[in-house]
Amino acid sequence: MNPQHTFSIDAEPYAFEFTPARCALLIVDMQRDFLEPGGFGETLGNDVAPLRRTIAPNQKLLAAWRAHGLQVMHTREGHRPDLMDLPPAKRLRGRGTRLIGDLGPLGRILIRGEPGNEIIPQLAPLPSEPVIDKPGKGAFYATDLHAILQNRGIRQLVVTGVTTEVCVHTTVREANDRGYDCLVPEDCVGSYFPDLHAAGLAMIKSQGGIFGWVSHSEKILSVLNCDSGIRSADSLAKETK
Ligand code: TIU
Predict the structure, then answer these.
(1) pLDDT tens digit string along 174-185?
(2) 34 lines ligand 1 (CB under 6 A)
(3) Residue 35 in contact with ligand 1 by CB distance below 6 A
(4) Which residues does residue 132 pair with via DSSP β-bridges, in sequence order?
(5) Distance between CA atoms of 231 and 226, rounded to whole angstroms?
């Protein structure tokens, strides 16, 4: 597989033209706070079990990205220990048993440096993989994500993680407005609510791909594991001039 070549991935609403060297895998908020009991997700009244089905397919996709030496980025939602970056409205919203910053079984809820803020061990970042700490739901708001992607020549994103309709969706919308093409593999994103998960995916691919494309990790892996580049990035650039 030549990462400079462009490959067609079967996706909705139509095929995604994938140039691996220009495409980062952006894994959103696969943190203990969302995927393990005792964290922020459960504090909001949610069952974390539905999110955990995303772990295995994310592991496979991450392994493929690493095997090909492609760009991987991770994000974490969390706040400063002094809460100075936490809007009071966000702290109070949800009316959970514990609020952001309160002490729970995984340390202080949604606070950087606490056990709950860590990415789950199954998807632990390598030292070479940037981790974006974000105070909001979107990964572009108040972070250096866009600058890093631009400096790395990234134009496309495969966005995975949790939750589909909250941080994944906000990030895809932000990325779309900044000119990135986003592909979301449906098995690698998860929600506490199956209906909102389905609606989130439907919104991304509606109206001819208003925010991006939806596919499945196996379809991406089948391209990464094959050797049939359709046309090179150079020839594609010439075509689009
Ligand atoms: N509550 C919920 O569904 N999600 C979040 O609060 N953050 C993320 O989606 N990461």
Answers:
(1) 999 999 999 999
(2) yes
(3) no
(4) 75
(5) 14
Q: Which residues are catalytic?
A: 29, 134, 167
State the amino acid at position 169 in one-letter form.
H
Q: Are 44 and 177 in contact (CB under 8 A)?
A: no
Give yes or no for residue 30 CB within 6 A of ligand 1: no
Helix axis angle for 194-209 and 169-177, nearest 10°, is 20
How remote is the CA of residue 73 from the centroid of ligand 1, in Å?
A: 18
Pocket residue to mutate for ligand 1, from 109, 134, 160, 162, most atoms within 8 A of Cβ? 162
Q: How far apart are CA 37 and CA 222, in angstroms?
A: 34
Residue 110 CA, ligand 1 centroid: distance in Å? 11
Taking the C-alpha atoms of residue 154 and residue 138, their distance in angstroms, rounded to an integer, is 18
pLDDT digits (tens, 9 = 90+) for 225-234: 886 544 444 4
Q: How far is the CA of 232 from the centre of ligand 1 (A)?
A: 38
CB of 171 within 8 A of CB of 140?
yes
Both tokens assigned to 4: 């400079």
Among left, alpha and beta (phi > 0; psi -120 to 50; other), residue 142 is: left
* C-alpha–C-alpha distance, residues 15 and 229, integer Å: 14
pTM: 0.94
The residue assigned the tokens 């209906």 is 195
Token pair listed for 195: 């209906």
- pLDDT tens string 144-173: 999 999 999 999 999 999 999 999 999 999
Q: Which helix (H) or strand (E) holds 198?
A: helix 194-209
C-alpha to C-alpha distances, 61 to 34, 54, 148, 188, nearest whole angstrom: 20, 11, 21, 9
